[in-house]
Specification:
By secondary structure, the protein is mostly beta strands. The protein contains one helix and ten strands, in the order βββββββββαβ. It starts with a strand and ends with a strand.
């Protein structure tokens, strides 16, 4: 049974940084593409970033150059380092698994979601 537990969210001022984490269990983590997603109030959940099992990454345009996804296969954990945060980054952030980088962008195809972690960026 897949379990995804996100943590590390909080309140940060615009321009600040935050690193969030996602601990995964019930999967072959090191061979799985992992992605980060977010859902802002009143908006649909959207793709943010993903990393394949071999370290290839992909980011949505709005976070390129500011966010960095990484993973620690020994800890079954994926991270999202967020720098130069903006108020529009405010959202609940979720992680999820995918079969490929392309599949990681198909948010509507994903059935299971963890509880997420709330990131609030004040102006």
């Amino acid at each position: 049974q897949v379990q995804l537990v996100e943590s590390g969210g909080g309140l940060v001022q615009a321009g600040g940084s935050l690193r969030i984490s996602c601990a995964a269990s019930g999967i072959m983590f090191r061979s799985t593409t992992m992605g980060w997603y977010r859902q802002a109030p009143g908006k649909r959940r959207e793709f943010v970033a993903a990393m394949s099992s071999v370290g290839t990454t992909h980011y949505t345009d709005s976070v390129k150059g500011r966010f960095t996804i990484s993973r620690d296969n020994a800890k079954n954990t994926v991270y999202l380092q967020m720098n130069r945060l903006k108020p529009e980054d405010t959202a609940v952030y979720y992680c999820n698994t995918a079969t490929s980088l392309i599949a990681s962008m198909s948010v509507s195809d994903m059935d299971y979601w963890g509880k997420g972690t709330l990131v609030t960026v004040s102006s």
